[in-house]
Design a protein that fits this description.
Layout lengths: L2 H13 L12 E6 L2 E7 L8 H9 L7 E4 L13 H8 L3 E4 L11 H8 L3 E4 L3 H7 L1 H9 L3 E9 L17 H13 L2 E5 H7 L15 E5 L10 H4 L5 E5 L9 H5 L3 E4 L7 H10 L4 E4 L3 H9 L5 E7 L26 E9 L2 E8 L1
Parallel strand pairs: 3-4, 4-5, 6-11, 6-12, 7-8, 7-11, 8-9, 9-10
Antiparallel strand pairs: 1-2, 1-3, 12-14, 13-14
Amino acid sequence: MNDADYMNFALDLARSGLGQTSPNPAVGAVLVKDGQLIGMGAHLKAGEPHAEVHAIRMAGDKAKGATLYVTLEPCSHFGKTPPCSDLVILSGIRKVFVAVTDPNPKVAGTGIERMRKAGIEVEAGLLEQKARELNKVFFYNIQTGLPYVTLKSAVSMDGKTATVSGESKWITGEEARIDVHHFRHQHDGILVGVNTVVKDDPALTTRLPSGGKNPVRIILDTYLRTPIKSRMLTDGESPVWIVTGGETPPGQEAPYREAGAEILRMESPEISIQEMLAILGKRGITSLFVEGGAEVHGSFLKERAFQQIITYIAPKLVGGKEAPASFGGTGIEKINEAVNLTIKQVDFVGSDLRIIAEPK
C-alpha cells in the first residue's frame, strides 16, 4: 500500500461517523510503521475522543517513529477534549500526512504549525478534494454560520410528485425510501411545510433496520395551523420547532409550547428563508434536510438557499397538467436566470434513479 491507499482507508473510517459527529467533522486516522498498520480510529460523536486518539491508543508504544494519516488537521485547542496535536507530539510520531487543513478559526493551520515546530515532518493536501467533499457540511457551516441545505424530492419520470387527485404514496420503491432514511440520519434538522403536516401527518423520524439518529423536526407554519394532535407533537421521538410569522398572535403559541414544541418567531410577517436559516445556524443546526412540498421547495429556490439537491426519479408516468411538480411558487421567468446545477452523482436505488446535484 502507498500513502494514498492509507489516506483512502482513513477516509473510509471517517465516513463511518457521518451523521453522528455534529457539530464536529467526521475524521479518520491511520497509523503505519514499517509497512504495517498499527492503529486506526474514527471520531464517532462530539465530546468523545477524536480519531487520532483512538489510533494512538491502539498503537501504544509502537506509535513512536510511526507515520500518521489523518483526514483533517489535528486540533490545537482545548474544546470538549484536549488538543490532538499535543498528543501526536507526545506519542513520538515521526511523520504526519494531513488531507486538509481545518477551516475552524481556532485551528486553521496552527495544529500543523505546532507539530512542525516539534520536529515532526508534516505533509498537507494528500487527497484534499476527497476530504473536503466528505466534510462539505462542516466546511460550509464553519465558514458561513448557516446550515448546509439539501432539498429532497421524489418524482415520476415526467416530473410529478403526485397524481392529479393528490395521491403520492408511493411514487418510489422501498429501496429509495430506505435510502432517504440514511440521509435523515446524516442531518441535524429535517424541514417540511405546514400543508404537508396537515395532509400527511408525517413522523419525519429515521427508520433504518439498524436504528439511526432522529433529526430535529422543523415546520414552516406562518399562521400556526399545525394540528395540535399531529404525530410530531405527540410521539416524543425528537424535538419539534415551529417557525411562524411575526404577526401571529402570541396567545396562539401556548398549546404548542405545552405540547413540547418550540416556537421560532420571525421578525417579518412572512417567513424569510434566509432569516430562518440564520436562526437555525445559531441554534446549532449545521445541516438541514428539506422534504417539503412544492411551495416550500419553491421558496428555497427563489432565495437560492440550498447547497445540494437529491432527486429520486421513478420509472412511472403520471401526466396531468394539474398534477403537482416538485417546485412551485412563482418560478423563474427567464431561462438564463435558472439555477444551473452540476450533477455530482447518479445511481440506481432499486428500480429508481437517484441524482445528486449542486448549484454551480
